[in-house]
Write a structure and sequence with these properties.
Blueprint: H1 3-9, H2 23-34, E1 46-50, H3 53-59, E2 74-81, H4 86-109, E3 113-118, H5 122-129, E4 135-144, H6 162-165
Antiparallel strand pairs: 1-2, 2-4, 3-4
Amino acid sequence: METWDVIRSRRNVRSYEDRPISEDDLERVLEAARRTPSSSNEQRWDFVVVRDKDRLERLSHVWRGAAHIPGSAATIALIAPEADDPRVRESIAYDLGQVTMSIMLGAADLGIGTGHSAARDQEVARDVLGFPDGYYCAWLIGLGYPADRPFKPIEKPSRRPFEDVVHHEQW
């Protein structure tokens, strides 16, 4: 897909077809994540890919908004280092937002849907994912082929009007 079409087509998908994602496509999405720019090129993230159905089911208990995770073909957990310094925490949060969008756009380009979830219960996340102390699971991103409809540019998105959002020179 063309970049502009991917941006206009991407939407949150939380209902997936029951079919796997090829290894090549999954690696391409992960490579998009790995190449994401980060603050001072720190790359303060790790990715845990989960495809095992039992693990996906267990991951769905990290937050009430993770109910779509067991139906995903794969889920990418974004793991980040804990930080005491507020500026470092903000920097990590910004970088995680960038890598999340890279994953979502990279997947949409391949016709793969994504749905994100927070990870509130860190004990469950650590038990399922096995990340070390000093780290936390920031987000889960479920991936799968959309069960309802394939991607195509959304002509009339449910968004605030352009004129209400965009300000020139000052508010």
